[in-house]
C-alpha cells in the first residue's frame, strides 16, 4: 500500500472518529436529557405514572413509525448522495438534491401528519386514550422531515456538529415544555393525567421548531463557505430533475424499512402483548398496562441511551462508505468495515454490561421503588439485548452505505418473520420478558445474515477484529464483575446513613459503579493497547493524561 493510500485510510478513520464523537455527544446528551426528565415527571404524576408512561410509549411508537415514513429515509439518502457528488467535486448537484429533497420532505410531512391525526382512532388499537396523544404528535411530523433532511445535507459534507447541536437544542426545548406543562397540569391545576401526557407528547413539536431554527442559524453563519464550494465545482455533470427525484427515492425507500427496524419490533410488541397476555393470564388491563410500561417504555428509555451510541456510528459511516464505494477502493471499504465493527464493540459492549451491572439502583433513580425487583430484572435483560439491537443499527447502515439496500431489507425481513414466529410462545410463557427475548432472537438472526454478507462481499481484517473482540469482551466482563461488587458493597455502606431504596442512595451507588467501572475499562483498554486500534494517536495523549505507561 502506498503512503498516499495509507494517508487516505487514516484520514477516513480520523473523519469517522471525529464525526462519531460529535454524533455520539449529541445523541448521548439528548438521550440522557430525555431520560433524566422522567424523575420529576414521575414524581408529579404520582400514582398515575406507570399508566401515563405506558400511554406515552404507545403513542410514541405509532408516531415514530409514521415519522420514519414521513422522513422516508431521505436525510440518510441525501447524506450518502451529497457525499458521493462532493467526492466528484460536483457540489452544485448536491445543492440541487437538497432542494428537491425539501419538496419531498414537506410533502411527506403533510401527508403523514394528516394520516396520524385523522387515522388516530384506527391506529389506537382499541386504546381510546391513545387518540388525543396521537393528535398532539401529528403537529411535529409537519416539521421534523425538513429538519432531518437539513441534518442529512450537513452530514454529506462530513459536518456532524450542526446535527449534534441541533439535536441537543431540540431535546432541551422538548423536555423544558414537557416538565413545565406536567407540573402545571398535575400539581398546580390538578388536571387530567391524560391531558398532561398529551401535552408531554406535543412537546415534540416545540422541540422540532427549536431544532430547525438552530440549523438555519448554522447555515446562515457558514453560507459563504457552501457557496464557495458550489462556485468552484467542476460542473461537468448535468442531472435532470426527474432523475434527481428517482435517485432520492431509490436510495430512500430501503432506509424507511431499515430505519424503522427497532420501531417495527416495538409495534409488534404493542399490538400483540395485551392479547397474548389475556390468553395466558387473568390480569386486569391496568396490570397489563403497568407490565407493558416496565419493558416497553421504562427499560427501553434507558437502553436507548446505549443504542444511541450505535446510531451515532451508523450516521457517520454511511457517507464515508459511499465515498469509498464511489472511488472503487475495496481495501478502504474493508478497512472502514473493520473500524466500524471495532468501534461498535469498544463502546457498546461495556456500555451494555455496565448498565446491566447497575440496573438495580439505576432503575430506582429513574422509576422509584414501584415494581422494583421486576423492573430491575427487566432492565438487566434489556441491557443485554441492546447489543444485537445496536449492532443491527450499525451494520444495516453499513449495507446502505455500500448500496446493498435490497439485501439488507431482505435480511431484516427474515429477522422480522423469526420475531413473529417466536413472539407468541415467548410472551405466553415468559410474560414481560417474552417480547424482549423474541426481539433478541429476531435481531440476532438479521445481524448474522448481514455480517455474513459483508464478509463475503468485502471482507474484514479478521485478525485485528478477532483480537479486538477477545480483548474488549474480556475487559468488559472484568468491569461487569467489579461493578456488581461495587454496587453490592456500596449499597451496604450507603445503607448505614441513608435508606438504601431512596433516590439519593441509589444515585450515589449508581455513580460509584459507573465511575469505577468506566475508569477500570478505560485503564485496561489503554494499558493493553486495545484503544490504539480504535482511537489511533489519541490513545497516547489519553495515556499521558491518565498517567498510564
UniProtKB/TrEMBL annotation:
Pfam families: Polysacc_synt. The chain crosses the membrane at residues 21-40, 60-80, 101-123, 129-154, 175-196, 202-220, 248-268, 302-321, 342-362, 374-399, 411-430, 436-454, 474-498, 504-526. One of its GO terms (cellular component) is plasma membrane. Its main location: membrane. It is found in: Cell membrane. Keywords: Cell membrane, Membrane, Transmembrane, Transmembrane helix. It is a multi-pass membrane protein. PANTHER family: LIPID II FLIPPASE MURJ, PST FAMILY PREDICTED COLANIC ACID TRANSPORTER. This is Polysaccharide biosynthesis protein. The lineage of its organism: Bacteria, Bacillati, Bacillota, Bacilli, Lactobacillales.
Amino acid at each position: 500500500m502506498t503512503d498516499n493510500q495509507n494517508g487516505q485510510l487514516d484520514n477516513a478513520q480520523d473523519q469517522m472518529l471525529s464525526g462519531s464523537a460529535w454524533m455520539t455527544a449529541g445523541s448521548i446528551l439528548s438521550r440522557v436529557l430525555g431520560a433524566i426528565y422522567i424523575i420529576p415527571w414521575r414524581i408529579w404524576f404520582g400514582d398515575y405514572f406507570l399508566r401515563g408512561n405506558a400511554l406515552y410509549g404507545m403513542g410514541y411508537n405509532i408516531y415514530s413509525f409514521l415519522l420514519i415514513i414521513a422522513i422516508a429515509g431521505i436525510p440518510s439518502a441525501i447524506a450518502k448522495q451529497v457525499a458521493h457528488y462532493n467526492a466528484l467535486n460536483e457540489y452544485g448537484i448536491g445543492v440541487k438534491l437538497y432542494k428537491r429533497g425539501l419538496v419531498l420532505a414537506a410533502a411527506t410531512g403533510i401527508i403523514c401528519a394528516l394520516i396520524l391525526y385523522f387515522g388516530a382512532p384506527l391506529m389506537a388499537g382499541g386504546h381510546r386514550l391513545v387518540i388525543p396523544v396521537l393528535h398532539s404528535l401529528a403537529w411535529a411530523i409537519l416539521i421534523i422531515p425538513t429538519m432531518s433532511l437539513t441534518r442529512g445535507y450537513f452530514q454529506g459534507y462530513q459536518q456532524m456538529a450542526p446535527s449534534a447541536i441541533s439535536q441537543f437544542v431540540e431535546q432541551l426545548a422538548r423536555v423544558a415544555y414537557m416538565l413545565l406543562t406536567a407540573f402545571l397540569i398535575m400539581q398546580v391545576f390538578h388536571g387530567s393525567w391524560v391531558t398532561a401526557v398529551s401535552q408531554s407528547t406535543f412537546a415534540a413539536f416545540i422541540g422540532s421548531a427549536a431544532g430547525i431554527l438552530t440549523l438555519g442559524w448554522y447555515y446562515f453563519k457558514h453560507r459563504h463557505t457552501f457557496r464557495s464550494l458550489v462556485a468552484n465545482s467542476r460542473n461537468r455533470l448535468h442531472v435532470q430533475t426527474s432523475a434527481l427525484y428517482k435517485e432520492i427515492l431509490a436510495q430512500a425507500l430501503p432506509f424507511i424499512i431499515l430505519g424503522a427496524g427497532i420501531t417495527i419490533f416495538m409495534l409488534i410488541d404493542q399490538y400483540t402483548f395485551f392479547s397474548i397476555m389475556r390468553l395466558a393470564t387473568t390480569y386486569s388491563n391496568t396490570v397489563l398496562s403497568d407490565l407493558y410500561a416496565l419493558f416497553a417504555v421504562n427499560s427501553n428509555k434507558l437502553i436507548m441511551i446505549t443504542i444511541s451510541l450505535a446510531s451515532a456510528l451508523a450516521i457517520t459511516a454511511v457517507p464515508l462508505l459511499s465515498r469509498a464505494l464511489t472511488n472503487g477502493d475495496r481495501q478502504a471499504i474493508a478497512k472502514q468495515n473493520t473500524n466500524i465493527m471495532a468501534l461498535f464493540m469498544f463502546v457498546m459492549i461495556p456500555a451494555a454490561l455496565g448498565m446491566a451491572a447497575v440496573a438495580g439502583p439505576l432503575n430506582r433513580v429513574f422509576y422509584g421503588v414501584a415494581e422494583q425487583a421486576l423492573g430491575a430484572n427487566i432492565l438487566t435483560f434489556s441491557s443485554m439485548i441492546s447489543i444485537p439491537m445496536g449492532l443491527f443499527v450499525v451494520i444495516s447502515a453499513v449495507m446502505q452505505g455500500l448500496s446493498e439496500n435490497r439485501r439488507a431489507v431482505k435480511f431484516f425481513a427474515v429477522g422480522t418473520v423469526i420475531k413473529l414466529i417466536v413472539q407468541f410462545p415467548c410472551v405466553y410463557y415468559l410474560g414481560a420478558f417474552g417480547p424482549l427475548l423474541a426481539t433478541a432472537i429476531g435481531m440476532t438472526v438479521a445481524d448474522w445474515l448481514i455480517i455474513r454478507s459483508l464478509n463475503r462481499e468485502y471482507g474484514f481484517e479478521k485478525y485485528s477484529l478477532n483480537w479486538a473482540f477477545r480483548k474488549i469482551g474480556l475487559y468488559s466482563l472484568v468491569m461487569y464483575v467489579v461493578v456488581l461488587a461495587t454496587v453490592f458493597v456500596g449499597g451496604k455502606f450507603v445503607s448505614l446513613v441513608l435508606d438504601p431504596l431512596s433516590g439519593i442512595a441509589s444515585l450515589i451507588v449508581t455513580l460509584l459503579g459507573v465511575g469505577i467501572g468506566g475508569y477500570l475499562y478505560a485503564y485496561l483498554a489503554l494499558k493493553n493497547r486495545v484503544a490504539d486500534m480504535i482511537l489511533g494517536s489519541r490513545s497516547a495523549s489519553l495515556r499521558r493524561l491518565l498517567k498510564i505507561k
